[in-house]
TrEMBL record:
ABC1 atypical kinase-like domain boundaries: 44-290
Superkingdom field: Eukaryota
Organism of origin: Pelagomonas calceolata
Family (UniProt): Belongs to the protein kinase superfamily. ADCK protein kinase family.
SUPFAM superfamilies: Protein kinase-like (PK-like) (SSF56112)
Pfam annotation, one family: ABC1
Protein name: ABC1 atypical kinase-like domain-containing protein
Length: 336
């Protein structure tokens, strides 16, 4: 019954449009928000959203003369469709294969309408104070989220994020991201090299491919995010499996990161707090967890430390937090 209800909600979010699909995508990755029965139906919103018709026509309209001058052919059926747009494979006149993301028509107007309604709802939540110390100004939180949503619909931001990620990992042969074609990218179109891979969602395919090593891929994924958080201070904030793949052409499989619509930065205190939090999770140390939260600046001034420590400890005891209890701290933090 729960699974059936979740499927209905997922279908409703698709009907409501891209803003609500994006909210469903976020919820599908947050197990503290949805239980195990709800997560799978919502996860299909990550990469199984209905495509919109006329993708090639929209691409022609957005690129103008550049389309006629540079493109030899565009595959009619998209290979992927998501909340903001869809991806078509294409061949350039010089023979190179590319993946072209084209945005859904009239997306900003849809966002304007939906965001105005949702902002009213979130600001109303400020009347209900339930936190024991975490700063939960819901109106401000939504304003920050809305700012991120609007940045997502400018593909020039995504292109800049991908370039920065590529530069940060230029010396790491175990991870890559497709090269961006700046001259064929705009606010509404993103053209990148076609880099095929086996989706990390397809565990059976990874385990069946002798050229791939699931454990190596898992280690590299963890290493990739530790380095983003703790060394570079710049990280992809949408790491669901639909955005990740394994390149079987590289021994054991090279990690491919496809999507940089969402990214964020950590300042020095936040990076130090992230390292502290990692250590606290490995040791299930509630006191150190709260120290990490304080260092990162996520607690309100005058917070009730004793109450928060007790809450964190309760979560550890109940097994609600997946930790590295028993793991060697030195080995787990070496990548950072």
């Amino acid at each position: 019954r729960e699974r059936r209800a979740a499927r209905r909600v997922a279908d409703l979010l698709v009907e409501l449009g891209p803003t609500y699909v994006k909210l469903g995508q976020i919820a599908s990755c947050r197990r503290e928000l949805v239980d195990t029965e709800w997560a799978p139906p919502l996860q299909r919103l990550q990469d199984q959203v209905p495509a919109f018709p006329g993708g090639e026509a929209e691409l022609r309209r957005r690129l103008g003369r550049r389309f006629e001058e540079r493109f030899e052919a565009v595959d009619g059926a998209p290979v992927a469709a998501a909340s903001l747009g869809q991806v078509h494979l294409a061949t350039l006149r010089d023979g190179r294969r590319v993946a072209v993301k084209v945005q859904r028509p009239n997306l900003k107007a849809i966002y304007d309408k939906d965001v105005a309604l949702l902002r009213t709802i979130f600001k109303a939540l400020d009347r209900f104070k339930v936190s024991v110390g975490v700063d939960q100004a819901w109106g401000a939180i939504f304003d920050d989220a809305a700012d991120l949503l609007y940045r997502e619909i400018d593909y020039r931001c995504e292109a800049a994020h991908a370039r920065e990620f590529a530069e940060n990992f230029r010396d790491a042969p175990w991870v890559t991201t497709p090269e961006i074609f700046d001259d064929l990218s705009t606010e509404h179109v993103l053209t990148m090299a076609y880099v095929p891979g086996v989706s990390l969602k397809d565990v059976a395919a990874i385990e069946a491919d002798p050229s791939l090593d699931a454990k190596s891929l898992a280690r590299n994924l963890a290493r990739c995010y530790l380095l983003q958080f703790c060394r570079h201070g710049f990280f992809n904030t949408d790491p669901h499996a639909g955005n990740l793949a394994a390149d079987a052409a590289i021994p054991k499989g090279r990690l491919i990161v496809y999507d940089f619509e969402q990214a964020a930065r950590l300042d020095e205190n936040e990076r130090a707090g992230a390292l502290m939090l990692l250590e606290a999770l490995l040791d299930e140390d509630a006191e150190l967890c709260v120290d990490a939260f304080s260092t990162m600046g996520v607690l309100k001034e005058g917070y009730d430390r004793e109450a928060i420590v007790a809450t964190v400890a309760d979560n550890f005891r109940a097994g609600r937090v997946a930790t590295g209890k028993g793991a060697a701290r030195r080995g787990a933090t070496a990548a950072a």
